[in-house]
Amino acid sequence: MTGHDRDSSSRHWSHTRLFGVHLATHAIPDAACFLHGGEGCKTKSQLHLVFNDWMHESHNRRIWTDIDDTGLIRGSALRLEQMIRTWVPRRKPAIAFVAAATFLELAGDDLDGAVKRAAAEVGCPVHRIVVSAFDGDLLDGYRQVIDRCLREVTWDRAPESGINVVGHFFDRYEADREADLHELERLAGGLGLPVRSVFLSGSPFAQLQEAWRASVNVVLPDAAPLAAELSRLSGRPTVVTDLPVGLHGTARWLRSVGEAARIDSSRVEAFIDTEMARAVPRIHCLVERIGEVDARRTFALFSHSSLAAALCAWLTDMELVPAVVGLLDQGREEFFRQSLGRACPTEVPDFRLLASPSRREIRQTLAALPRTPDLLLGSSVEVTDLADLGIPSLEVGFPSFARHGLFPMPTVGFNGALALAQRVLDALSRVH
């Protein structure tokens, strides 16, 4: 593929930071997002959440200023200020975020001043988040919302106990995502640690402000850039971890959290041993049947880097072999390699790594493989694009348009490992 061909073909994860702000606002049920832009921006960003979340609508938490050519020429700052003054009293959000489309960022209007003037009068925090279509992706916008929420916590109170989890990717209010939250609480509870706040989790803003009660901040990889400032801001120990996915990944997460919270290591290991004794025999039944050396099954995986590393390690631990891994976020190849190295207890066979690939590149890469992978993991985009290949598929990550959580099946933790093993078994057996 020539450079021109690749540049002109669409990427799978083409969501920008602006959409990340909208998605994060969706994860705070009493928040509002002011989208300062035109009609097209509204429609594109809204459609993703309509298809991704069956349980919780997001229309009423996104307010758009609907700037046309005339508004651009005359200046859009006044329009933005008027919209904030009008709609915050009507909607009464606990917190609001403002994100402007790139063409309005480039127009040179005093958007900061407009937001500050309106925020001084409306009675709730209003944060302007600068986004750009030229760099970053939805994870960057999502993380910026988390950062603003952390800055609204009153940290100058003595902590009580427990942990905060910072950087959890919550994109919908369905049973699978709720199961992840319950599993995080169960894991921390196994160490005697209550979970005070999860950024983000579908919890109201008031619950996020309870973060001061925790004595330790646990920062997941997608929020790692916030860790140093959070430690300074909160005055609390802050530890950065990989995702607690798979047996070894979850055990490593528990040890990291236990060490940061000064939990006796014997208690941590006792909890891990109990959970392993419950999960390993069941998963071993699957490994015995798919791990024959002379018929080793392969997989292709497409996700953002932190989840891709965790899933790749877990599948390798189940004796599946990676053929292709595509990282859908931007510029995190080195992070992926380091995270995979930490998470995988055995050496990972060589595979093709694609960085922010186009849809065409993914298809051409799979077509060039010596044989078609036995399993495909990816978002609804990859699963749909490659459906004609007939590969047994698991829809993971964002967006998820086909798979929905009517029953709680987590991805994280020991229960998540069992649920993933079940999904792999069902896919390879072609029974769904």
Which class do the helix and strand fractions yield? alpha/beta
CATH-defined architecture of the largest domain: 3-Layer(aba) Sandwich
The portion of residues forming beta strands comes to 5-15%
Q: Based on CA inertia axes, which overall geometry fits?
A: globular
Task: Give the CA-CA distance, first to last residue.
Answer: 36 Å
Tell me the CATH superfamily of the largest domain: Nitrogenase molybdenum iron protein domain
Overall description:
It is a single chain. This protein is an alpha/beta fold. It has two domains: 143 residues, Nitrogenase molybdenum iron protein domain (Rossmann fold, 3-Layer(aba) Sandwich), CATH 3.40.50; 160 residues, Nitrogenase molybdenum iron protein domain (Rossmann fold, 3-Layer(aba) Sandwich). The chain is 47% helix and 13% strand. It contains 18 helices and 13 strands. The strands form three sheets. A five-stranded parallel sheet has the order 11-10-9-12-13, with helices on both faces. It has a four-stranded parallel sheet with strand order 2-1-3-4, with helices on both faces. Helix 9 links the parallel strand 5 and strand 6. Helix 12 packs antiparallel against helix 13. The longest helix has 26 residues. The protein is globular, with a radius of gyration of 22 Å. It starts with a helix and ends with a helix.
